[in-house]
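Researcher: Let's do a round of design. I'm pasting the structure tokens now; please hold your answer until I've finished.
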């Protein structure tokens, strides 16, 4: 069932073209494209809504026959990192010129591109190309897949570890040694597997991000684009600490196990790892509210990874519980303790999600009419389904007279379905994080 969910999400992410304006929105061009100029300008300037990455942002100008007529000095203004400029060759003839630009937001590292026309000594055409132009590309399928991979792996590593520390470990303290060792072994390998996946996902995301920034296919991101991305700038200042924390926390688990100080240190690093995602989320780009935007997004992803990771830990533990039928541990105890953690996580996800949705979209109309808003509605629907299922599962577990009973089996498959929904919501979240909040913004 989980394999079906994973396959479905990968297909959706790869096939779902995210065609919309990325976050560094083009606000103003000088000279403007809506006037006829007496003479060709010495320079074109493009003002964006966010700071630009100077290496991956550039502008060039072509004449009507496609020849480049700029001076080849495209640059982000050192005095204003939201301004992209290029000088034009002197003595250009009258005619229609095409200004083609590509930007990489230095905040959410979403690439964007566009084109507009300049009218020199000729009347402005009736329907000039829109300022932001056509063929807008935001996040690529690979960068979206990288985000989803991160959410799933972070849940496998951090969510499972948190559930072992807060739910399973304490519950098993008085259980039979066989059940304890089976559960500990399963949970240990789940967490180690999650840690390895997290590191591989972070490496994959860097290559995908470099390829998107340089506008080349995935493997083209290796080499210079990757070097440029990881050796300077904001993305590098977030990526290296993320990788370092992931490697350190995995080594703590591998050599220190899932009990004791080592695992507590590993668990303590997870909120910092998740913060690196919030630092490149849309919340970080909220005008005049990036601090609250980052904090709310961070709370949201912590809650989501704890919830989904908890479901993974539970789904992996139940078969061991069925085998150890005389373990002295009842489903009622299990769901009682796990239910409290899941309820808290779900409440955090719901409140922070609605708040962040309100901050990003800003109007109910925007929720109904924008791609971003519609993805939010899909998430709200999936959340409602997950909560409903959680309620049914809780009832089943409390009704389960014995660990071998029918009700416990039904509880197990209910947990499996809830988990599958969680993995699908992560896919929608990855698409959401790659889609611009709303045109109004
Ligand atoms: C009422 C339901 C929900 C709402 C309104 C909501 C809203 C949001 C919003 C606005 C974002 C920010 C996206 C961006 O960067 O622009 C987000 C991100 C995210 N959501 Fe939700 N969400 C909901 C439910 C869920 C659920 C149930 C889960 C998982 C179990 C989840 C997991 C995530 C994740 C992992 C992110 C990405 C955070 C990041 O990249 O930093 N959300 N959500």
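Researcher: That's everything. Go ahead.
Model: Designed sequence:
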């Amino acid at each position: 069932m989980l394999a079906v969910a994973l396959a479905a999400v990968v297909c959706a992410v790869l096939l779902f073209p995210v065609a919309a304006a990325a976050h560094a929105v083009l606000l103003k061009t000088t000279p403007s494209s809506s006037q006829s100029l007496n003479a060709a300008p010495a320079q074109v300037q493009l003002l964006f809504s966010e700071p630009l990455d100077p290496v991956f942002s550039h502008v060039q100008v072509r004449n009507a026959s496609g020849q480049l007529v700029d001076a080849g000095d495209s640059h982000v203004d050192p005095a204003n990192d939201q301004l992209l400029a290029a000088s034009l060759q002197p003595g250009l003839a009258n005619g229609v010129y095409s200004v083609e630009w590509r930007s990489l937001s230095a905040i959410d590292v979403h690439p964007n591109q566009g084109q507009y026309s300049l009218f020199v000594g000729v009347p402005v055409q009736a329907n000039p190309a829109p300022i932001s132009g056509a063929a807008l590309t935001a996040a690529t399928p690979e960068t979206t897949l990288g985000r989803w991979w991160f959410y799933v792996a972070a849940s496998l590593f951090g969510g499972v570890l948190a559930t072992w520390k807060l739910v399973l470990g304490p519950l098993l303290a008085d259980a039979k040694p066989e059940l304890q060792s089976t559960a500990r072994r399963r949970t240990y390998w789940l967490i180690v597997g999650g840690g390895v996946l997290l590191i591989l996902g972070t490496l994959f995301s860097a290559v995908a991000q470099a390829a998107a920034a340089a506008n080349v296919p995935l493997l083209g991101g290796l080499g210079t684009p990757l070097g440029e991305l990881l050796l300077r700038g904001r993305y590098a200042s977030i990526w290296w600490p993320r990788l370092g924390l992931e490697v350190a926390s995995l080594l703590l688990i591998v050599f220190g196990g899932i009990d004791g100080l080592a695992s507590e240190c590993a668990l303590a690093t997870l909120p910092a790892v998740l913060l690196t995602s919030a630092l490149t989320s849309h919340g970080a780009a909220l005008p005049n509210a990036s601090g609250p935007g980052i904090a709310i997004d961070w709370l949201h992803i912590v809650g989501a990874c704890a919830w989904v990771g908890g479901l993974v830990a539970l789904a992996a533990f139940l078969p061991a519980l069925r085998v150890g039928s005389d373990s002295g541990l009842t489903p009622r105890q299990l769901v009682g303790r796990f239910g409290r953690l899941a309820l808290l996580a779900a409440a955090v996800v719901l409140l922070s999600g609605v708040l962040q949705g309100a901050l990003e979209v800003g109007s109910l109309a925007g929720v109904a009419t924008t791609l971003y808003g519609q993805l939010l509605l899909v998430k709200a629907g999936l959340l409602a389904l997950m909560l409903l299922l959680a309620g049914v599962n809780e009832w089943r577990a409390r009704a389960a007279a014995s660990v071998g009973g029918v009700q416990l089996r039904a509880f197990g498959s209910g947990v499996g379905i809830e988990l599958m929904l969680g993995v699908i919501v992560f896919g929608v979240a990855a698409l959401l994080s790659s889609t611009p909040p709303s045109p109004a913004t």
